[in-house]
Design brief:
The chain has about 280 residues and is α/β, with parallel strands linked by helices. The termini are far apart. It contains 10 helices and 12 strands. The longest helix has about 40 residues. The chain is elongated, with a radius of gyration of 47 Å.
C-alpha cells in the first residue's frame, strides 16, 4: 500500500504537459467569468434603466408639448385680427401731410404688424429719401394701430409749384410732400430749377441767423451773363436785396444796419460791395 501511494504521489508531482496547462487555465478563466456575470446580472440593473428611460421619455414629451403649443399660439396670432394693421397714425403733423407720409411709408391696412416691425429701417429710409426734411421716424404699436412719430430738420423754405409748396433741403432735394399753407417765417424759392443752384442757395440760407432768415419772404434766381449766381430777395418789411449766392450769408448780416439807416423802402445791392438806394 505504501508503495502505491508513493507511486501516485510521484505521478502527481510530475510537471504538467502544455496541453494540461492550457486546460487548467481555461477552467480558471471560466470560473472567474462566471463569477463576474453572476455579480453583474442585467436583472439587477433593470429598475434603474427603466427609470432612466421614463425620465428621457418625459423630457421628450414636455419638449414636444411646448413646441406644438408655441406653434399653435403663433398660428392663432396670424389668424386673429389683432395681428393685422387696422390704422396708421402720424404724430405731430397736420392731416394733409400725414396722409402723404402714410402713403410714402407703404404701410397699408390688413398688413401684418410683425411685417411692419421687421421692416422699420427700410420704411424709415424710404420716407426720408422721398421727404428729405424728415430727420427721423420712430415707430410705436397700440392694439391694431401703427404710430409714426416724425422729427423734422430745420425748415429752410419751400419751392412753389402752382398752389402747392414743397420743402427744400441743403442737399438740393425737393420733398414729395406738398403743403397748402407754408410756414410764414421761412422764404419761398422761385426759378431754382437746377439742383446745384438749389444746394448752393440753401447752404447760404442755413448759415444765416434765424432772425435774418425769418425776415426773407421770397428768393428769386435772377442770373445774368456776368453773374449766373445772382439772386433777388424780397423782404417781409418791403425792402429788396440784390446779391450773389456765394457771398449772401456773409453780407446779409449787415441787413439790419441798412434797414435802420433808412426811413423808406430801399433796394440793397450786395453784389459788389454794399450800398442801398430808395425803391422807385
Amino acid at each position: 500500500m505504501s508503495s502505491k501511494k508513493s507511486k501516485l504521489k510521484v505521478q502527481t508531482d510530475l510537471p504538467l504537459t502544455p496541453w494540461e496547462t492550457a486546460q487548467k487555465r481555461r477552467q480558471q478563466s471560466k470560473h472567474s467569468l462566471g463569477g463576474f456575470f453572476k455579480k453583474q446580472r442585467i436583472g439587477d440593473k433593470l429598475p434603474s434603466l427603466v427609470a432612466q428611460r421614463k425620465k428621457r421619455l418625459r423630457k421628450v414629451l414636455i419638449k414636444n408639448l411646448l413646441f406644438f403649443s408655441m406653434l399653435l399660439l403663433v398660428a392663432l396670432y396670424f389668424i386673429l385680427p389683432i395681428s393685422k394693421v387696422k390704422s396708421i397714425k402720424v404724430l405731430a403733423y397736420n392731416q394733409h401731410s400725414a396722409k402723404q407720409i402714410v402713403k410714402l411709408s407703404g404701410i397699408k391696412p390688413q398688413q401684418l404688424q410683425i411685417g411692419v416691425f421687421l421692416r422699420q429701417k427700410q420704411i424709415q429710409a424710404k420716407i426720408k429719401d422721398q421727404a428729405p426734411e424728415i430727420k427721423k421716424v420712430s415707430f410705436a404699436y397700440s392694439a391694431q394701430q401703427v404710430k409714426l412719430k416724425v422729427i423734422e430738420k430745420r425748415n429752410l423754405g419751400y419751392v412753389s409749384k402752382g398752389n402747392l409748396f414743397y420743402r427744400i433741403e441743403t442737399n438740393g432735394k425737393i420733398s414729395k410732400i406738398n403743403h397748402r399753407n407754408p410756414v410764414s417765417d421761412v422764404p419761398i424759392y422761385f426759378n431754382f430749377n437746377k439742383s446745384l443752384l438749389r444746394r448752393q442757395i440753401t447752404q447760404q440760407i442755413e448759415a444765416l441767423s434765424p432772425k435774418i432768415m425769418q425776415a426773407i419772404s421770397e428768393i428769386h434766381a435772377s442770373p445774368t451773363k456776368s453773374d449766373p449766381q445772382r439772386v433777388h430777395l424780397y423782404m417781409n418789411d418791403g425792402n429788396q436785396v440784390l446779391a450773389t449766392i456765394k457771398t449772401l450769408a456773409a453780407k446779409m448780416q449787415y441787413y439790419p444796419q441798412f434797414k435802420s439807416n433808412s426811413s423808406q423802402k430801399i433796394m440793397i445791392d450786395l453784389q459788389v460791395g454794399a450800398y442801398s438806394y430808395p425803391l422807385q
